[in-house]
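Supplementary Methods S3. Complex input for the 1,6-di-O-phosphono-D-fructose-bound model.
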Amino acid sequence: MKLTLSVIKADIGSIGGHICPSERLMDSVHNHVNDQSEGLLLDYYLSYTGDDIAILMTHERGPGDEKIHKLAWDAFLAGTEAAKAEGLYGAGQDLLKEAFSGNVRGMGPAVAELEFDERPNEPFLFFAADKTDPGAYNLPLYLAFADPMNTPGLMLSPGLAAGFRFVIMDVNYTEADRVIELNAPEDLYDIATLLRDTERYVVESVWSRGSGEQAAAVSTSRLHNIAGKYTGKDDPVMLVRVQKDFPATGEILEPYAIGPYVAGCMRGSHQMPLMPVQLNSGISYFDGPPVVSCAAFAMHDGKLTEPVDVFSNPFWNTVRGHVADKAIDMRRQGFFGAAMLPMSELEYTGIMKKLETLDDRFRVRD
Ligand SMILES: O=C(COP(=O)(O)O)[C@@H](O)[C@H](O)[C@H](O)COP(=O)(O)O
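Predicted complex, serialized as structure tokens:
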């Protein structure tokens, strides 16, 4: 029987603006998952990153399973009630549809799922980001799975020698899922050509070409495609299997030391550096900076070990310092130039209305 790892996350309310869920909210989601897990889940783990709550679940029911997705949806509904009772900001924000219809995809919550035959030892990483969108993982995944400057395993390990297949989604296409499959290393320049455009092309999954096994799964939902207006950034989750036929944990983590500029932060409309943070960290400076957390696990027969908080290692304090410096530098230029996203990507419609009004006031000189 294959095992499935499902992570489903949502922003359903926060203390003090969009910064962090309350204890009562976390408890209500936890209680619901705990009460409903029997006979469905092998194990689960709950955490938050910024104001997003993620439910990581292990089970044998395969990706997209109605009962698993409903369990998470109902847990978020229970949490929303707790959020309303406490007057939290944005209660139920990511639950964009009235009624559950078989699967949370397209309903607001973000989903990433992996199905595999469990190895005798099964190490994997669970990433969660806030105040940014799924394109934030493009660079770390490219470097970890396709660049020997980052991942010496591509040169040194026979298990990685055949390279990796990237499945990339065009997230601006709203009619259906539009994807392309490209192979590293042969298609490297084509992969780079797409992944540089983080707002349109997003890595959905990565596969080992040697074993055929799936290495990574990323949530690719775009909330504004579902809601038709800004309802918060997409705040992506990701699962990555590591070691042996996959990159080592350290090779997956190395790119996060760059603190690359990503879309998001204040009002989802800025370019700010991505800060690796500890598990269960809130948001602060300029509704940001965009943050990413990572929990490392091992599992056996679907039972999870305790999480290891990889970005709590002292090494990452220096990185956080660099990222904070980059963030403050960028904020010095306010709305100017690269500090804000291009007009087409601005998450608030107010500026578009303003431009229309100003357009009427333009006149062509004789
Ligand atoms: O990006 C933000 C929230 O994102 P999130 O929902 O947490 O993904 C914030 O910067 C808000 O846009 C900002 O605080 C204004 O919020 P509103 O007053 O419009 O709710």
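The longest strand covers residues 3-10. The mean pLDDT is 95.
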